[in-house]
TrEMBL record:
Source organism: Thiothrix fructosivorans
Keyword Flavoprotein included in the entry's annotation: yes
Protein name: NAD(P)H-dependent oxidoreductase
Keywords on record: Flavoprotein, FMN
Cofactor: FMN
């Protein structure tokens, strides 16, 4: 019986993304009773109040967010900050009445990038999460160097040590989510 439903959201739209690869790796290290679904942001348009109705791609991801107990954000770093696709879906979700899709939910952040492994973008994402009332797991943090041989050509995580670190983080997320749910 699954007791905790996670939604993985990658800020990268690239097919061979190492950040989306981290989400695939998360699905292989989840604790018992935890499941993960990965959202597809590839067709989600930029948020604008000018749209008279929500596009189908947006409605699908928002429905996934409504079903999720917690999030795993795979946060690439673009120009020292978070990727537009990730910020965009949070913007869409925050426009729902009373912020029901985000407020009070928990999240873990993972990221693969250059030398600092997305540390700066994760910091910016944490700031956004404060505003929309998502409770982000503080520790353990997860940063991976995408160019140090830990990923294959398709973006899949192949480094056993990094997979083990993801497993530890997912156990901590499950415990954190359970604690806040009480």
């Amino acid at each position: 019986m699954t007791t905790l439903k996670l939604l993985g959201i990658s800020g990268s739209l690239r097919r061979a993304s190492t950040n989306t690869g981290l989400l695939r790796a998360v699905s292989s290290v989840l604790p018992e009773g935890v499941s993960l679904e990965i959202a597809d942001l590839s067709e989600v348009p930029f948020y604008t109040q000018d749209l008279t109705e929500k596009p189908a791609a947006v409605s699908k991801v928002l429905a996934q967010m409504a079903e999720a107990d917690a999030f795993v954000f795979a946060c690439p770093e673009y120009n020292y900050s978070l990727a537009p696709a990730l910020k965009n879906i949070i913007d869409w979700a925050s426009r729902e009445p009373n912020n029901v899709l985000l407020a009070g939910k928990t999240a873990a952040i993972v990221g693969a990038g250059g030398g600092m492994g997305t540390a700066r973008s994760q910091y910016h994402l944490r700031q956004v999460c404060v505003y929309v009332d998502i409770h982000v797991l503080n520790k353990p943090e997860f940063f991976a160097n995408a160019f140090a041989g830990g990923f294959d050509a398709d973006g899949n995580l192949i480094d056993a040590n990094l997979k083990q670190q993801l497993g530890v983080q997912m156990q901590a997320l499950a415990a954190f989510a359970a604690k806040l749910k009480r």
